[in-house]
Amino acid sequence: MTTKTREEIKLMERVCKLAAQTLYHTAKFVRPGVTTDELDRVAHDFTLSNDARSAPLGYHGFPKSICTSINDVVCHGVPGPQPLKEGDIVNIDITCVKDGFHGDTSATFFVGRVSDKARQVTEVAKAAMEKGIEAVAPSGTVGDVGFAIEKFVTRKGFHVVREIGGHGIGRDFHEDPFVPSFGKKGKGDRLLPWGTITVEPMINETAAPIIEMPIANSSIKWYVTSDRSLSAQFEHTVLITDAGHEILTIY
Ligand code: MF3
Ligand code: CO
Ligand code: CO
Hints:
Helix content is about 25%, strand content about 25%. The chain has about 250 residues and is an alpha+beta fold. It has a single domain, classed as Creatine Amidinohydrolase (Alpha-Beta Complex), CATH 3.90.230.
């Protein structure tokens, strides 16, 4: 993992704060009837008006500025003309680039009133991210993070996605190391003070496999649960400090 200078951390703090503000701003528009294309436009315009750009747009051919993953979509959902409907859960994933650095954050939102199971999978995903973040420490490893996430999620009767997870972040959108949502304590890549990673567990209702789906003219895939069961996710960009960690994607 790349470690950052004091100046680079300042820039990471700035872009991460903007990503969090963009997510918060965009989320205000979530309601039955709004299209994910409209959310994409809101996020895109907000980002540009803050002298930054949306990292997903054009990233390996990705066609939109944000990812919007509804219900059984695990991640990388492409915004489109379909309106959100009452009872949906939607993950909005925002990544901004400013002054050469990336800030990446996502959250899952309720569209009107949702079912108990939709609420449960969303709450478990949020708490799973928090458990993972608590395990981020300068003497630790990515295995510590994955272990904390998986242990919590399994106890709650839900399932972690293994194929996709967190990542180092900085000048590049996706850097080493991979930060899995499962693992063994003390195993895997070491976390270094003044490195930055994302913690972004995807949590599914069932253990059914996920299916990879193509995006036209892009090498990015989107993913859906094979049994149409629900999937939820939360993401923060986190700085590893000499004392522990600090969440950067907060407004
Ligand atoms: N923001 C996603 C992540 O958390 C990545 C999206 S890549 C895209 O890593 F191309 F789909 F935008
Ligand atoms: Co990410
Ligand atoms: Co993201």
